[in-house]
Amino acid sequence: MLVIDRIEGGIAVCETEDGRRELPLAGLPAGVREGDCLVCVDGSWQIDREETLRRRQQNHSRAAGLFRRKSREQSE
């Protein structure tokens, strides 16, 4: 599985368990964006929508927790 870290020009810079990988956008599904999880199915990349959603929700929850903690610390 790959996770798109950023898109620079026509290249998607992806993170893998083993490091970084760059893929041309032309070989990826239309509409890919930063944070999308990609899996290779039958030789082509597809967005794993379930994993993408799970990770986005997890990141949102973590960020919300950090903001709540920071807000409490400032009010003390």
TrEMBL record:
It comes from the Bacteria. Residues 67-76 have a biased composition (Basic residues). Residues 53-76 are annotated as: Disordered. This is DUF3006 domain-containing protein.
